[in-house]
Amino acid sequence: MKEGAVEYVDADSDRSPVDYEKGADVGPTTGFGSLPPDPDAGRSEAEKAHIDKRLKWKLDLKLIPWLCLLYLCSFLDRTNIGNAKLDGLTKDLGIGTNQSLYNAALSIFFVSYSLSEPLTNILLKRLRPSIFIPAIMILWGIVMTTMGLCTNAGGLMAARFFLGLAEAGLFPGVNYYLSCWYKRSEFGIRAAIFFSAAAVAGSFGGLLAAAINLMAGVGGKGGWAWIFILEGLATFLLGIVSFWMVHDFPDDAKFLSPDDRARVIRRLKLDNQSSAEHEEFKMEYFWAAVKDWKTWTGAIVYMGADGALYAFSLFLPTIIADLGYTATKAQLLTVPPYAAAAILTIIVGYIADRTSQRGLCNIVTSLVGIVGFIMLLAGNSPGVQYAGTFLGALGIYPCVPNTISWSSNNIEGVYKRGVALGIIIGWGNINGVVSSNIYRAQDKPGQDSQLSLSLVDLD
Known about the structure:
By secondary structure, the protein is mostly helical. Helices cover 73% and strands 0% of the residues. The relative contact order is 0.16. The N terminus is likely disordered.
C-alpha cells in the first residue's frame, strides 16, 4: 500500500442479514457521508408523510413502467427460441431431431450471459444508466434481428452467444439501480413488479408467437424467423427511445428538483445506505464483494430459483405441445400460467416488504412449485399436468425477485453491492446451462429428467 493511502475497511462483511432486513441499528457505515439539509424542516409530521408519499409515487411513475417494458423485451428475446422451435426453427436450420445441437444453442447464451454479469454493474455506475442501458438494448436488438437471418445451426449459436453478452447488463443492472433509489422496506415490491415482466413476457410471448407465425412464407422466411426479426426490431427502437426514458442515479437524475433530490438522498442515508454516494471504483470494493459470505449464500439460493425458472420458461411450449396440443394451441396455453405467476410475484413482494420474512416467503412459494412439478411428473392426464404448470410457475417466479431484494438489502457499499449482485445473478444463471440440456427428446411425453431436476432446484 502506498504511503499515506487510506486502507479500505469493509464495515459491512460481518453484519448479519437480520440486522439490515429488520432495520436494526447497525451503527455507522463507511461512506454514508453527511445528510443534506432537510427541505421540509419546520413542517408537521403529517405534512412530511404526505410529501414522502407523493415523492415515492413520482419515482414509481418515472422509473418502474419503462424498466418493466425493457425487461419484458429482454426475457422475450432470450426465451422466444422455445416458441420459434414449435414454428419450424429446427427443421429450417438443419437441426432436425438433433436435440443436443438445439440444446447447445440454448446453453451458449448462458455462458456469455453469466460470465459478463459480475462486471456489468461497474460499467453501469461508471457510464451512467442513461447511456449504458440504451446502448446494450440497441446492441441486443441488432443481434436478435440477425437471428432471423440465420441459415444454419452455427449462425444461430453465434447469435445466441452475442445475445447473452449484450443482455447481461440489464437484469443485474436494473436491480442494482432500483436499490439505489428506494429504502430496503420498499425495494422488494418494486423488484417484484419489475421481474413480473418476465412472467408477462412468457404470457405475451405465446400470444405474439401465434400471431407472428401467420407471416410464415412472407419474404421466403418461416414463421420462426419473423419472430426473431420483428421482436428484435422492436427492441432496437425501444433502445433508441430509452436514451430519453432511462434516468441516472439520484445524485444526477435530471427529473428531480433540488428539494426532491435532497429528500431522496436523505431517505437513503437515514436507511443506512451509501447508494447515493459518489464513490471512485477501487479493486478493494470488488474483492470485498467476493469475500463476503452473504454474496455466496445469496448466489446459492438464487441458483436454485433460476435453474427451475429457465427450465420452465425455455421448455413450457414444448411440454404443453407434448401433452397432445397443436403448436398454435400450445403457444396460447402458455399464457394463463405466466399471467397467474405475474400476479403472485407482486403479492409476495408486497408481503415480504411488510413482514421482512423473505426467506419464509421463498420456502412457501417453493413448496407450491414442488407440488406442481410432482403433478407434471406423476399426472396421467393432460388436465392434471397442465394444472401442474400453473403451480410450477407460481412456485418459481416469486422466488427470483425476492432473493435479489433479500441479497441487495443485506450488502452495503456503492460498488460492493453492484459487484455482489452481478456475482449472485451471474452464478445463478450458470444453471441456465444445465436447464438448457436436461430436456431430451427420448424423455417424451413425461420429460422426467427435466422435471425432476427442476424439482431438485426448488428443493
